[in-house]
Automatic annotation (TrEMBL):
Subcellular location: Cytoplasm
Family: Belongs to the FdhD family.
Primary location recorded for the protein, binned into one broad class: cytoplasm
Top-rank taxon: Bacteria
Protein name: Sulfur carrier protein FdhD
Gene name, Swiss-Prot/TrEMBL: fdhD
SUPFAM superfamilies attached to this UniProt entry: Cytidine deaminase-like (SSF53927)
């Protein structure tokens, strides 16, 4: 399934009007099934759907590791992603009982929004990133982002691990993180060395995805929410906002950033 399609529109430009072709991003409703049980429905862009599902299941702690997955397959006719794997049954039950519709796009849900009940590990990773390197990466953020260049209608996440980038593009910002994480784990990359950069706000569900997967640093050009900061501080995630030019606000675990 192509992630874009072309349609004819009427364009007004100054005092002129004319018909022309315009490229739009495609939007679908995707159901994610694990061992035959539907665990989520989300509006998504039909790219990297297998990594999206794997990243989502890891972020919800339904999966512990990609090595537990025996198969993952997108059914284009049914618009479903079917995963077979060994799972954390308690996390699946909690997801079903405690699921909350998140603040992003679509109907995606999470059970990981309450910092008092979030079951995750403190990030004790001592890795450090130079502020100038973060500024450089953020200034080049939209390079390699094909869908954004074509449509201007998607969010982006870029996960840098060593010298390799894992990029997720989607109409829903939370999906971009899951896509980037899914790509990385399916490639065997070590998330504990990751610098995760996103295009939008740092709300609680974005922060939780980094915390749950042990990613030490999360950066955006925009602001965090109060709950996002509380979760980051509780689990020692380095949370950075307003990364623009040479400026950077660090809301938690600033010791991982050096001049």
């Amino acid at each position: 399934m192509q992630p874009i399609f072309t349609t004819t529109i009427t364009k007004f430009k100054a005092n002129d009007s004319f018909e022309c072709d315009d490229i739009l991003v495609r939007e679908i409703k995707l159901d994610i099934n694990i061992n035959g049980i539907r665990v989520g429905s989300m509006m998504a862009t039909p790219t990297d759907l297998e990594p999206l599902g794997i990243g989502y299941l890891l972020s919800e702690n339904i999966l512990s590791s990609f090595s537990d997955v025996s198969s993952v397959k997108f059914n284009e006719s049914e618009l479903t992603l079917d995963v077979k794997a060994e799972i954390n049954e308690d996390s699946l039950k909690n997801h079903t009982a405690e699921a909350v519709i998140i603040s992003g796009c679509g109907r995606s849900v999470t059970a990981n929004v309450d910092p008092k009940n979030l079951k995750s590990k403190i990030i004790e990773n001592g890795i450090k990133f130079q502020r100038a390197e973060i500024s450089k990466q953020m200034s080049e953020f939209y390079t390699q982002c094909d869908l954004y260049e074509k449509t201007g209608c998607v969010h982006t996440a870029k996960l840098k691990i060593d010298d390799k980038f894992y990029i997720g593009e989607d109409i829903a910002q939370h999906n971009t993180i899951d896509k980037a994480i899914g790509k990385a784990v399916m490639d065997g990359a070590n998330l504990n060395k990751g610098l995760l950069m996103v295009s939008g706000r740092l709300s609680s569900e974005m922060v939780v995805k980094a915390v749950t997967n042990g990613i030490p640093v999360l950066v955006s050009r925009t602001a965090p929410t109060s709950l996002g900061v509380l979760i980051a501080r509780k689990f020692n995630l380095t949370l950075c906002g307003f990364a623009r030019g040479e400026n950077l606000n660090v809301y938690s675990a600033s010791e991982r950033i050096y001049a």
